[in-house]
Amino acid sequence: MRILFVHQNFPGQYLHLARHLAAQPGHEVVFITQREDAALRGVRKLVYKAQRTVTRHLHHYLKEAEAGVLNAQAVARVALDLKKSGFIPDVMLGHNGWGEIWYLKDVFPQTPLLGYFEFFYRFAGADVGFDPTEKPSFDSAPRIRTRNAGNLLGLEAADWGQCPSQWQKSTYPERYRSMLHVVHEGIDTDTVVPDPQARLRLPGSDLHLAAGDDVVTYVARNLEPYRGFPSFMRSLPAILSARPQAQVLIVGGDEVSYGARLPQGHSYRQRLLDELGDSLDRRRVHFLGKVPYPVFLKILQISAVHVYLTYPFVLSWSMLEAMAAGCLVVASKTAPVEEVIRDGENGVLVDFFRPEEIAERVVAALADLAHFEPLRARARQTIVDRYDLQRICLPGQLKLIAQMA
Fold this sequence. Notes:
Blueprint: E1 2-6, H1 15-23, E2 28-33, E3 43-47, H2 63-84, E4 91-95, H3 104-107, E5 113-116, H4 140-147, H5 149-157, E6 160-163, H6 166-170, E7 180-182, E8 199-201, E9 208-210, E10 215-222, H7 229-242, E11 247-253, H8 268-276, E12 285-289, H9 293-302, E13 305-308, H10 317-324, E14 329-332, H11 335-338, E15 348-350, H12 355-367, H13 373-386, H14 389-404
Parallel strand pairs: 1-2, 1-4, 2-3, 4-5, 5-6, 6-7, 10-11, 10-13, 11-12, 13-14, 14-15
Antiparallel strand pairs: 8-9
Organism: Candidatus Propionivibrio dominans
Keywords: Transferase
Domain Glycosyl transferase family: 26-191
């Protein structure tokens, strides 16, 4: 079988699937992407570049749409060259987030296309208006409606769609839900495992930490409000005061993935450090930036309490991996989290906007780790039962591909 993948950030959600398919005899796997570095054995990678940047002074409603068109055109050109070379895929898979799949069916009209759909933007009931201190203006509704132009183009271009969670599927208009299949890309629970003997020497430090120590962890791609970074930081003075031996490990960059951009040179990390000032014991709060995956796993394995907070938005892999590693997860009581975590059964749920409640639950867990051991075990079992890569999610994706092809 010939399979064509498209994702600007190779390999993205297709890491395990593309690797598996490329390893099977009789498959030819091609991957169109913007990313020049990185490779997968057996996967032929083709790099595309948009021919120009978005038009200056374009109406701000339309900037994402034009960026999507530019990406879609560039991908279509690469696909046309593939077609001329004799490569006709039996099935195509691509992430819709950046417009890349919009014109694939115009190149290969007979080939089924499975689009990856993460989130349909809404004026109410999701991320917009979630923070009560931020009042949306009238401009928000038409801007968001227009922002979904790319979602709608992708839905019309694809034959079927894949969503990683039921809640994320529910954000899409009802008329499209019958074509959307909920299959998570999967957590490798054979690799992400608890390790009671885990130890970690912090990079650039003489500090050694081990499983069983008072270690509080927080992970996000970037340290920003959508992932509850301000609430987490505001909980730390109380946590550190109540637990004099506690160490806090924070993984994430200083950019902004979601929500409003900050002025050049500013970061939420520095804003919160300035706000908290001397109330925060900086000697016990460690900002690790973005770390290699093996280090990330060690951080989870030595974690006594892992804090995960999110707006009603796309659910992070890191929360599921933390559960698979046997972490006690203290998480926000928000819709995407509640699909996975049940308070008091396989984790602890807290109010996203109440740092004092976050601190209270973290301190209580650190004070009696043995009491929460059953929650840790059930957290891992939840991932094994519902999100296991080899036994649940990869077979689910392969089944979709087989049905389409």
